[in-house]
Amino acid sequence: MRILILGAAGQVGFELTRTLAGVGQVLTADRVADPALGVALAIDIGDPLGLAERVIALAPDVIVNAAAYTAVDQAEDEPELADRINHLALVALGQAARRCNALVLHYSTDYVFDGRGTAPYREDHATAPRSVYGRSKLAGEQALAASGCAFLLLRTAWVYAARGKNFLLTMLRVAAQRDELTVVDDQVGCPTTARFLADTSAVLVRRWLAADPVQRAQIEGICHVASAGQVSWCGFARDIIARAHALGLLARATPVRAIT
Ligand SMILES: NC(=O)c1ccc[n+]([C@@H]2O[C@H](COP(=O)([O-])OP(=O)(O)OC[C@H]3O[C@@H](n4cnc5c(N)ncnc54)[C@H](OP(=O)(O)O)[C@@H]3O)[C@@H](O)[C@H]2O)c1
Fold it and tell me: How far, in Å, is the centroid of ligand 1 from the Cα of 157?
């Protein structure tokens, strides 16, 4: 069983290399190969033609795509690049998966919704992205679904990890530098660890591989995966700082002022 992980140096991809190791032979790829991070292959998913060829040549049974353009604000200035990586790459992956008869496990985001809801979003909730990033991720979802390949699409939110670029590490850094932080208190979400996502992904891949075609069809499709509970960015920042202070990671509990 061959499992190709794209974006293996990212927050989720890095954790996936650990959780999928017991499921099959794992091939790791990212924009650049990096043996220190366990990334063996350089595959640019922003080159859709080359991407399909490379994937077909590797003949994986499962393609896990944790690579993405994730700079949400910057995407407003780079819509074509975001579209190439988050959308056109999925056209190529869908084609390659059909050729290899492989499952595609892909990740998407709560940004495909308009964010105006006050209750948790269900999988069949109407999508209405309001940003370049959200539109590019939704286009990727639709391309994957239209490709006709077997796919599992996990929508998640507010991902953080002990490495990479994320809110947790940003708060730890700025809390050590400033006397007070101001953080928005009117946006609520579900902070989700990359490790939890990777663990959940491995469970789903194992189930899919062990299933018969009828059972596989029940596993495939869109699934929302986020940690339980909810918090505002401000509440999350306060919790991060309080815990880091209690653990001795921060010299003082920097106050966080709520803003809209
Ligand atoms: N982070 C979140 O809060 C969040 C929330 C909801 C959903 N998601 C989704 O979850 C998935 C994983 O996110 P993450 O937080 O793990 O992202 P991440 O930490 O930003 O990792 C993405 C990885 O993809 C690589 N990549 C970007 N462009 C590439 C290209 N053209 N070719 C090859 N590799 C490329 C990045 O390399 P470079 O660093 O070199 O660019 C990075 O290693 C994504 O689909 C994302 O949309 C994330």
Answer: 13
Q: How far is the CA of 69 from the centre of ligand 1 (A)?
A: 6
Annotated catalytic sites, by residue? 133
Residue closest via CA to ligand 1's atom 37 equals 31
Distance separating alpha carbons of residues 158 and 132, to the nearest angstrom: 17
Evaluate: CB of 68 within 6 angstroms of ligand 1: yes
Q: pLDDT digit string (tens) for 39-94? A: 999 999 999 889 999 999 999 999 999 999 999 999 999 999 999 999 999 999 99
